[in-house]
Amino acid sequence: MTDASHKLIQPKPYDPEYCIDLHVHTNRYSPCAESLDPAMIHRQMTATRIQGVVITEHDRLWSRSEIHKLNKNLVNRRIYRGVEITSINGHFIVIGLENLEGIKPGISIFELLNVTRQKNAAVILAHHHLNYSQTSAPIDMKRAPKDIDAIEVASTATTGENCFEAEKIAGIHGWAKVAGSDAHTLEKVGSYCTGFRQLPDTELELAAMIKAGLCIPHNDHRRYHG
User: Fold this and answer.
1) Which end of the chain is less congested by CB atoms within 10 angstroms, N or C?
2) What is the pLDDT of residues 77-111, one digit of tens each?
3) 79 and 70 in contact (C-beta within 8 Å)?
């Protein structure tokens, strides 16, 4: 294919860990990612030498059968279900949900945490510095809920000084630090990822590792150690 959206980037070396891109959108359910065909993700995973991808559509969770089809022929790699929730307090990546019962766009972070606590899902604050038209009550970083599990310290949307600010916020609240590409095009998948000591079998196992802080964020430009 000659379409630039299907161009595979050159392999980049990572430490001998299991690297998972925790934040990827596709054209299946995210109109803003109109060129990212989910059927191509496995090829980009090979090109970037990452072992996992979490598909995090905006306010939409893939079905088990849909994810199963993407995973059908993968060996020592895995694609997981997640979701990026549009809250009035900002955007949050949630991993470990079976469904979106009790969750809808415009939910508050406090309501979201009430639901995710019961389901053992992990909640990650994404691009903390960005506010959107739906963000009517931006989260106060000094008074942020302690039950948030992690913060995205690097992505295509979080770079430079915003990375350092996110790391400081993580330190203040004791949150885990993670990275994900926030990819909306295929070539961005794997550009930022989070390292784990093992490849989780399920989303709940991945969520548990994030909640326990058993992860190290990476990107192409520098390494974070936390």
Assistant:
1) N
2) 999 999 999 999 999 999 999 999 999 999 999 99
3) yes
Evaluate whether residue 226 is within a structural domain: no
Q: pLDDT digit string (tens) for 27-57?
A: 988 888 888 999 999 999 999 999 999 999 9
Alpha-carbon distances, residue 67 vs 48, 87, 187 (angstroms) = 20, 25, 21
Is 1 a domain residue? no
Number of domains in the chain: 1
Domain assignment present for residue 224? The answer is no
* Gap between the Cα atoms of 198 and 87, Å rounded: 31
Cα-based distances in Å from 170 to 14, 42, 76, 176, 178: 24, 31, 31, 6, 10
Q: For the whole model, what pTM was predicted? A: 0.89
Query: Which residues, other chains included, contact 83 with Cβ-Cβ below 8 Å and sequence gap of 6+?
Result: 56, 57, 58, 59, 60, 61, 93, 94, 97, 100
Question: How far is 205 from 198, CA to CA, in rounded Å?
Answer: 10
Of 203, 189, 196, nearest to 116 by C-alpha is 203
